[in-house]
Amino acid sequence: MKLTEAKAQFISSWGAFGTHWGINRTMAQIHALLLISPDPITQDDIMEQLSISRGNVNMNTRDLIGWGLVERVLIPGERKEFFSAEKDIWKVATQIIKERKKRELDPMLKLLAQLEQIEGDKKDREVKQFTETISGIRKFGGQADKVLDVMIKADENWVLNSLLKFFK
Amino acid sequence: MKLTEAKAQFISSWGAFGTHWGINRTMAQIHALLLISPDPITQDDIMEQLSISRGNVNMNTRDLIGWGLVERVLIPGERKEFFSAEKDIWKVATQIIKERKKRELDPMLKLLAQLEQIEGDKKDREVKQFTETISGIRKFGGQADKVLDVMIKADENWVLNSLLKFFK
DNA sequence: ATATATTTTCAATAAGTTTTGAAAATTCAA
DNA sequence: TTGAATTTTCAAAACTTATTGAAAATATAT
Fold it and tell me: What's A156's DSSP letter?
């Protein structure tokens, strides 16, 4: 397989993959393109390589920056802005976990804690099942939360860091 | 907070939460409803409680069964079919992980293995960055794959099982 | 067998999301 | 300043996905 074909395939699959992970197709495709670009590239490069509009590139690069996966790079002597993606996959994964935890898991756990304190007769089958389900999810979520925190902070913890080196 | 209000909130949030996890809103809402129902319920119960059409319930319960999260229950003397959800959250999580691994991670790793064997001059910056990125993702994905397999099979492994009891 | 209850299918439609592109805003150099 | 280059915004259009509902299929009781 030639580079051009392989690139196209990677970008397309990473885009499809992204849609399953709360990241939209184009955002994931731009991310893919940046991951395989050895040097920072411009809005126009992205527009051209992915055949998408300027507005689209602008919005999605902004989102990628919001996710902490991409950064703007200023190149001396160049008027245009350049974009570059974090290439260390461990850092990419950590960053995504961190963001999703903040955006999804944390608010869910907060809600569950409230729902657990429902008023009502505990002998009522409905009430009983409701509180049992909510508390089961909350406990599980709480543990997941802790595990993820540990992963995110792995770099500050040498025991874990050495364990996690396997992943790097 | 009263049960009725709490139920509505839980169903609505679980639905929103699901959309971030590759599960559609309605499917997640039906799942939520089943999770808090002490007894199996019918299509009509679901239609009524969530105000959705018969066809919608039918398709989504079918999908939930496909994900291994819900099962049909036959109640002696009843003409209608009843549905019931697995209530053990650890099992629910395991099942979701198993399915998503099969549907998403495995095919991605297969593709990456192919893309890694690209033809081309390794001194070319483009080629170099491409293979480095692909191989980085593949290695990371491969480790994740192993970890997930271990989690899925935890019940067969007592050391892990005792570790994982924390989650249960 | 027939009637009735129940489930399934799927084309049409509705709802939601992404993309475009042109106008407005901003940045920068002379 | 002014003007050209560049980036940003956002309403409208295109596209995608989810939902409805009625007809067809299936199952069950008599």
Answer: G
Cβ-defined contact of B120 to A3 (cutoff 8 Å): yes
**A13·B111 Cβ contact <8 A:** yes
The whole domain housing A108 covers: 89-167
Chain A residues with beta carbon closer than 8 angstroms to that of B22: 20-21
How many CA atoms, within 13 angstroms, populate the side-chain half-sphere of residue A112?
A: 22
Which residue of B10, B139, B167 is in closest CB contact with A140? B167
For A145, residues 6+ apart whose C-beta sits below 8 A from its C-beta are A101, A105, A106, A109
pLDDT in tens, A116-159: 999 999 999 999 999 999 999 999 999 999 988 888 887 655 55
Q: Do B78 and B97 belong together in one domain? A: no
Per the structure, how many domains does chain A have?
2
CA of A53 to C1' of C24 (A): 17
